[in-house]
Design brief:
186 residues; alpha+beta; Trna Endonuclease, Chain: A, domain 1; five-stranded mixed sheet; 4 helices; 41% helix; 22% strand; globular
């Protein structure tokens, strides 16, 4: 048999594809909800990319009480670096939406832009702080920090507890070691 060629689709996955077969059990309302959720993720990615560009270019937004505007303007105000990878190992790393550290005042600031409706969790930013401390050899007890989540036109600020960050660091170190051992002896 001579098969039809669909070279532009190689490696792609259809929305109603066989590998994502759970849609067979969806109602029409569930399908619509899943579609809207996937579109919201795409819009969120685009907003993150836009925010990164605005911050890198130093372009402030109108001073309004909206999530994106507050996030971008605060990142500019605090001279933060957008989309910064924090690395401990190939098993544990992450990208902070915006981060800055002042060596002189020993103050760390991490901001996270959330574009979805699901409430965000501060644990993500605590992990970023632990990764920062591990990568740059900082003791959480020796620095101050403020972690912020920007979501739903509001800002949630958190002053992390150093012992909590140290617990996360220890878990990262331990779990990374476990994973490395599994790679040697599965």
């Amino acid at each position: 048999m001579k098969w039809n060629k669909h070279s532009k689709l190689e490696g792609a996955h259809a929305y109603l594809g066989a590998s994502q077969h759970s849609w067979l059990n969806y109602s029409e309302d569930q399908l619509i909800a899943r579609y809207h959720n996937s579109m919201a993720k795409l819009i969120g990615t685009r907003k993150h990319n836009l925010a990164k560009e605005l911050i890198e270019l130093g372009v402030p937004l109108k001073n309004t009480h909206t999530t994106l505007n507050m996030y971008v303007n605060d990142a500019l105000k605090y001279r933060m670096s957008p989309e910064t990878v924090l690395y401990y190992s190939d098993n544990c790393f992450g990208t902070a939406d915006a981060i800055c550290y002042n060596e002189k005042t020993r103050f760390l600031r991490i901001h996270d832009l959330k574009t979805g409706a699901i409430p965000a969790h501060m644990e993500q930013l605590e992990i970023y702080m632990a990764l920062f401390c591990l990568e740059y050899d900082k003791n959480p007890k020796d620095i101050q920090a403020e972690l912020r989540i920007y979501q739903n036109d509001d800002v949630l600020a958190h002053e992390p507890i150093p012992e909590r960050i140290m617990d996360i660091e220890n878990k990262i170190i331990k779990f990374d070691s476990v994973l490395e051992q599994l790679k040697i002896n599965p």
